[in-house]
Design brief:
Shape: globular
Bound molecules: pyridoxal-5'-phosphate
Oligomer: single chain
Strand content: 5-15%
Helix content: 25-40%
Strand order of the largest sheet: 1-9-8-5-4-2-3
Number of helices: 11
Order of helices and strands: HHEHEHEEHEEEEEHEEHHEHHEH
């Protein structure tokens, strides 16, 4: 048996006919940028996210950058970010000349720890970017309360948690603006790069719509120095096909995660993911931790089981961030996760047989190591 870390085989089979039809329709429409397909998907995704507006953009990083720009982030502003996240969250802040101020995660959930945010707030702090990491919703009630107390905006990074909710409310509907990515491997993935912003603010919706299209509302009349960051018609058409399956695929992810939990729970040296009270986990990533991480990766690899490490180096220790002068030990929890984490295969279409095989191999590893 050979089990890749990620495979689109089953889900692609399921949608192939509809994707081909969507391609043909878009092709024949001969309208490839900002047409009916984008409009339709924006409406559908806004509705799905329980927000009033959705703006389709070129990718998730741009969704973050355009949101920050629309929120009027300026050079020297301080923005609260998780120490444990994919680097895109930090990069967006840096592109605006603002300063990412890291806050450590809760070591059980891996998401930003609301109890550690207040001590990082200064007079320069403008906003908080919670990241619903690995598919688990952050503790949004606590985060929104802090934002409101200090008059900060919130920008959710919802790239990994489409379809998740916190206390019954969808992720991507809490913040002033919320960014998401439809990178192919995300829970809702396009067939190339794509992203979106959701918001309930008419003002932010208008601003971001203009920013994504050269700063222009009326062709060749430019109000601001904008970007070219539009969602393609083709990707929008494909995303509409896939959005219809998101609920079903999410249920499948949760069912697979439940099997992992059941089969792996009695291994003392293996830490399984924990979901906070009131939070929902849509298992974009099934991340486990062990001190024997590297040996386990090799063992699974020898048994043709693919794994990944999310992420081997936390942003503060990346070469790209040497200007911030952080050193090893500055964010010990993020570092601990980077040193001990590995992600197991989990995606719609992964069979019970494959899952059993993975669990048997993991048990065998810990029995003999
Ligand atoms: C994938 C991802 C992004 C960036 O998305 P792209 O579409 O690749 O630009 C941002 N934040 C997080 C947490 C992500 O996982």
């Amino acid at each position: 048996m050979k089990i890749p870390y990620l495979s689109f085989e089953k889900t692609n089979q399921e949608i192939e006919e509809e994707i081909n039809a969507a391609f043909k329709e878009t092709f024949q429409s001969a309208w490839y940028i900002l047409g009916e397909k984008v409009k339709t998907f924006e409406k559908e995704y806004a509705q799905y996210s329980s927000t009033q507006y959705c703006i389709g953009v070129a990718n998730g990083l741009d969704a973050l950058i355009l949101s920050l720009k629309a929120l009027d982030v300026k050079e020297g502003d301080e923005i609260i970010v998780p120490s444990n996240t994919y680097i895109a969250t930090w990069l967006a802040v840096s592109y605006l000349g603002a300063i990412p101020v890291p806050v450590e995660p809760n070591l059980a959930t891996y998401n930003i720890d609301p109890n550690q945010i207040e001590e990082k707030i200064t007079l320069k702090t403008k906003g908080i970017i919670p990241v619903h990491l690995y598919g688990q919703a952050c503790e949004m009630d606590a985060i929104m309360a802090i934002a409101s107390k200090y008059n900060l905006w919130v920008l959710e990074d919802n790239a990994q948690a489409q379809a998740a909710y916190y206390n019954g409310k969808m992720t991507g509907s809490f913040g002033n603006a919320n960014a998401t990515s439809f990178y192919p491997g995300k829970n809702l993935g396009a067939l190339g790069d794509a992203g979106a912003i959701t918001t309930n603010s008419n003002e932010l919706d208008q601003k971001i719509r203009v920013l994504r299209n050269y700063g222009s509302e009326k062709k060749y009349y430019n109000q601001v120095k904008g970007f070219n960051s539009r969602l393609d018609e083709l990707q929008a058409a494909f995303l509409s096909v896939k959005l219809k399956r998101l609920q079903q695929w999410t249920a499948e992810r949760k069912a697979l995660a439940a099997v992992y939990h059941k089969k792996l729970k009695n291994i003392p040296e293996l830490i399984l993911p924990v979901t906070a009270a009131l939070a929902d986990h849509v298992y974009h990533i099934f991340l486990v931790r062990t001190q024997k991480r590297d040996a386990l990766i090799s063992f699974l690899n020898e048994n043709n089981i693919g794994t990944l490490v999310h992420y081997p180096i936390p942003p503060h220790l990346q070469e790209a961030y040497k200007e911030l002068n952080y050193k090893k030990g500055d964010f010990p929890l993020a570092e601990e996760i980077a040193e001990t984490a590995l992600s197991l295969p989990l995606y719609p279409g992964l069979s019970e047989e494959q899952l059993n095989f993975i669990c048997e191999k993991i048990k065998l590893f810990f029995e003999s190591n």
